[in-house]
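Try this one yourself first.
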């Protein structure tokens, strides 16, 4: 039994490191994709799919640039929340990274995402999907902040897992698009509308399965071994 438990811990550690490495690589790729937009060319890449009537709207353009930059911040800081060595040895970094993560989502990333959702390609199904994603993201992150303020650490960690699951919808959307289009041969619009919903709803379902395994309690225990959160 002891050997089996030790092997299970090793597997969880290896899986966790692999996951963090994947998120780190994706963050780097996203950064490389975002930087060209900062030349502020009107019809570059994604912006080129929008009609002039949309590009002429200042609130859309502002929402776009706020969203792509703030999302990079929350992706990087959210990842730090789940690195045990940081939580254990440098709780101050954990606290400040968490505060910035929550603040940026509530004030910038989710609201700007709502602006973009109003003009999403794919019609009403895509607009509703992206709108609900931003609303759920905002509410879950707000709950995570409230639980931390009340020092209810286990519910706080659980809400942060759910929040980061929605944050990772950007990663899931691109991965699932590739799989559906190249492996299953779905049509472009079918692919797009499917991943609009699957990317965040699927991530939340996976988060719930992870929480059922006691992930939040283990993460909290690891952090509390050295210092309270």
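Now uncover the answer:
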């Amino acid at each position: 039994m002891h050997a089996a438990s030790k092997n299970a811990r090793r597997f969880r550690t290896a899986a966790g490191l692999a996951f963090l490495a994947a998120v780190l690589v994706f963050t780097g790729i996203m950064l490389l994709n975002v930087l060209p937009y900062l030349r502020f060319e009107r019809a570059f890449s994604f912006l080129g799919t929008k009609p002039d009537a949309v590009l002429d709207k200042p609130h859309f353009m502002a929402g776009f640039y706020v969203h792509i930059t703030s999302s990079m911040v929350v992706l990087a800081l959210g990842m730090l929340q789940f690195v045990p060595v940081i939580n254990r040895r440098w709780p101050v970094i954990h606290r400040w990274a968490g505060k910035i993560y929550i603040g940026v989502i509530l004030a910038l990333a989710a609201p700007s995402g709502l602006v973009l959702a109003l003009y999403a390609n794919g019609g009403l199904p895509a607009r509703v999907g992206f709108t609900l994603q931003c609303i759920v993201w905002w509410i879950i992150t707000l709950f995570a902040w409230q639980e931390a303020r009340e020092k209810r650490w286990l519910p706080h960690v659980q809400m942060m897992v759910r929040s980061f699951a929605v944050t990772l919808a950007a990663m899931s959307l691109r991965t699932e698009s590739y799989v559906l289009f190249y492996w299953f041969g779905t049509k472009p619009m079918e692919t797009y509308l499917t991943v609009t919903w699957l990317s965040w709803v699927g991530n939340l379902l996976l988060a719930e399965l992870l929480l059922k395994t006691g992930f939040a309690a283990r993460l909290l225990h690891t952090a509390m071994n050295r210092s309270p959160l």
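Discussion: The radius of gyration is 19 Å. The CA atoms of residues 46 and 73 lie 20 Å apart.
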